[in-house]
Every structure is written in C-alpha cells, then in structure tokens.
Amino acid sequence: MSFLAVFNADGTPIDDGTTGPLPAETERHLKLVCPSRQTALMWSVPDAELEDKDARHAVELDGQFWLLGRVRLDRRDELGALLAASATDALLCLRAYARWGERCVDYLRGDFCFVLWDEGRRRLFCARDQLGVRPFFYGRANNSWFVSDSLDAVARAPGLTGELDDFRIADFLTGPLCLDFDRTVYKHVKRLAPAHTLVVSRDGGAVKRYWALEFEEPIFYRRRGQYLDHFHDVLARAIKDRLPAGRVGISMSGGLDSTTLAAKTVEVTGDASRVVAFTAYFESLTPDEEQYFSALAAKRLGISHMLHALDDPYDFQLNDLIVPTQEPGGPSVHKTARRAIETRMADGAKVWFVGEGPDNALTFEWRAHLRWLARRRDWTRLLGAVGQYIRGKEAREWLMTIKNLHSPRRGPGETVRTGFPEWIDKEFVERLDLAARAWRSTGHLRQGQTWRPCAMASFTSPIWQMYFEHFDPALSGTSLDFRHPYADLEVLSFMLCTPPIPWGRRKQLIREAMRGRLPDEVLARDKAPLTVDRNTIVRKTPLPPLSINPALRRFIDPTRLPDDSAGKSGIDPLDKIRTLDAWLKSRPQ
Asked: What is the pLDDT of residues 396-407, one digit of tens each?
C-alpha cells in the first residue's frame, strides 16, 4: 500500500485535477475527502479487495481526526495502557494525537510514516519514525501540498516541475550516499528527515525535529551477567513486537548477528516450525562459507533453511537498467537477481527479519573510551579497562595495532573526498563547490559524545535512511515485509551504551550472550567480508555501448570517460554513469 495526501491551503475544494494519480496504474485507488473538502487522503490497494491488515492504516476518530499511513508500533501495550485503549496501531497514533497533540510523537516507537488531518485546527500533521525506516516525501505547488511515502506520487503531482536537484545528482555520481537527509533527486520535492514532523496549514509548512539519538555515559553494571541479561531482554521484546501471526523469516548469513536473530526468534516464539531462514551464497564467483555456517546454525536451532546459489552478480541484465526507479540507483536496480531471491523467500514467509545494526553499534572504540575515562579522572574504571584490553588482546591484534601506529588515522565517520572522477564536469563541480560541501559534511558529529564517536557518526548519518528505503515496498516494489529488530530504539541504545571494553571487541556482548545457544563454530567465527578478485571476472553478456542522454552532459564530460571498449569486465567503470543515463531516459517527458 502507498498513500498520498493533498491539502489546498487556500481552502479550495479538492477535485481530480488537484490530486492527480498515484503512480502505480495497476493498483486500485481509494480516496477519502475530509469534511472540509480541502483535504483528500488517498491510498492504493494491490489486491482486489481492501484487506483488514491494510484497513487499519486509514482510520478516523470522532469525526475530528483522520489518519493515513503505514504504522507498526513497538511497546504498543504500554501506549495502550496510557491511553486506556485497545486498538490497531494506526488508531493508537490517532488517539495519542487527540490526547497530546503534536507531542504524541514523544510516545511513539516503531516504524511509521503517517499524515493526520485535524479538522478543528484545519491542518495536516505528518510524522516519520526516529530512524527513518519508513520513507516520507512532500512538495508544494502554488497553494497545494502533497505528502506521500512514494517519491513518484509527489514528483508527478500537478504543478510540480520535476526540475532536478544538482546536489543530489552530484552525490550519486561521486559517493555512496546523499550527504543531506532532506534532499531528493527533485529540487521541489523534499524528504521528511527521520525523527521529524511536518505541520501544514494555511500559514505554510513547518518542519521540526522531535527526537535525537543521545546518551551521556556508558552503562556500568557490577556483574558481567547483567549485560547479557539486559541484551536478551531488549532483543526478545523487539522480536516480540515485530512478530507476525504466522511464520517469520530470517535473512540469515553464517555470521553472528543474523544467526542470533534466528536463535532469539525461536526462543520467543517457542516454536521452531514458525521460523524459516534464507541464505544466499556465491557458488563459484568467490570462496564463500555462508552456506556452511548458516546450515550449522539452522540445524542446531531446528528451523527450515532455504539456500539460494547466486550466479555471477556482475552479469549484465538488459532489463535491469530499463526498469524505472524512483531515484537513480534506487532499490529496483539489479531487479533480475533481487526478484529471483524475493520470489524464493516469499515461499517461506511474508515477514522477514534483517540483522543489520550490531556492526555499527558495537564498534570497538577502545581509544576513545580510555580517553573519556581519563578526562573524567575515573581512575578505577580506567585501570580496569586497560587491564581488560590487554588481557583480551590476541597476538594478531597486537601486530595490527603496531601496524596502525604508523598509519594516518581519519576522524570518526570521516568520508572526506580528496578528489572527484575526471569525467565529472569541472564547471559543475565548481558551480556547486562540491569539495567544500564534502568537507562540511564531516562536521555533523556531536562533540559531547566522544567515547563513541564512530558509532554516533554512523547512526547520525543519512546512510541508514538510504539502507532502510531499499527494503521498503513503496520504493522497492517488494512484496515482502522486512523488519529490523536491531533498529529497535531500546536495543540500539543499549548496544551503544555498553562499554567498548570489553563488549565491543569482536562483538563480545553477543558472543557471550549466545554461548550455548548457537554452534561454537559460529560463535568463534570472525567477521568475514566477501572479497572478489576484480581481475578474474568475465561477463557472460558484454555491456552495451554507452549512449549518453543529452541531459547527462550537464553533469559529465564525455571526452574524459574511462575506456569501456572491452565490455566484458565484470566490474563496470561506467556503472554510475550508465545508471544515471538510463534513469534520465526513463523519466516521463
């Protein structure tokens, strides 16, 4: 389901010319015009009939409030107790607004994006969850406001020009992510940043932050077992909040984080038959042990295990580039391989847990932690931490430390770009002052959080909203419901507040917590990133010649493009250019 809300700030009644269509022509569109007639709430339904599970996202209260969106709440029983109400998640949001007004978001936890019409105040109240699991976009054309979880639904609204945002294009071509939370590829369409609200009335629109990731000091327990108990408690609750009524899937590698999710899910459900794991692995491209270790975990837990051997992921599929995406490089890119995997996964379950989070939250920031203890003059804990650090350090780690002493170190989360590809148009770089912009992007760290700088840099970066959007059905088109237990605010906050020494070293917190619950081989396994020898990859299908769209010449210098004449190299040096070129051609004229 995707939704779109339209608000005419001048009081003009809504008509079909104002609203425009939702982007998916194959879906049935439903529309609710509020009593004021200046607001319309619309949603698309992929099924022949509106199902109960979708109906809960369009709710009304006392003829005064209407809410439309996608809402899944954590700790809903606690919120229900505060409101003395038992209702669907969306209706709980509506009741929370009726009780606390804009402060309702202070009581909401979970994955949500919604728009709420307040008839008494004649305004729209919009909110996005704290980490940006659900997407949210908005734009204004003359006196009409458009808000949606679909970028296309806003970008194609009547009156919006579709003019491109040069900064967003530059970020796509030169780096891994957009440097700004609120930019989209369209100049006049904005993302509502995570943990922000938008209030729209006849006086205009106001965006406000309502939450920030903050913590002052580590959690210091007297006994090691208290850390393990705390981890088990918050993760079990996060899983319980996200469990569907039937089967649940685990997107499981052979690593520690996803197998931990599988083990805890079996424990929470009390029924291994409700849990199914899915593992994709490389069959021949590169040495890959995911199949072996994931099978060990699945056998130990007694859960069903689906294996999917990947063909060469670098083999070009013509259909992948012509599939329209809402932004360049969006989640529909590489659709051929992705859809094959999701089709297999759909046979096992509708809801799937994803295990990202601990690698970033449990970074081993021992230097920053020791410095912080020294500045606090907490000599007892400092000496204890130094002792734990020395005792826990293996010989290979000592060798790495000696090597790193002679290597220059970057600041926490630093992603400064020292240069740009030769094929980026120089006038484009100078006009936008891209070098200065990239440098400024590293200054977002909070100076007070110096004992966890890298972890804080990670979770205050736009990279997470980009990551979550690749799993969201409104943007990716997936038919699966992906959920992220490690992104639960209590789980995340606890991992960030555990002292890096000893719990961050090789994610010791999780290894100790899962002792006896997962195979020893899995617990002893180091993080094993896959590496591919780029020189040995040969395409089965040569890449087509690059045909440059005239619109692309605003951003690149065609005379400086790298040579792609071989056409059979697995790694495409023109990947970003080819993707942007195809996206520009796919845009409606």
From this structure: 666 766 666 555
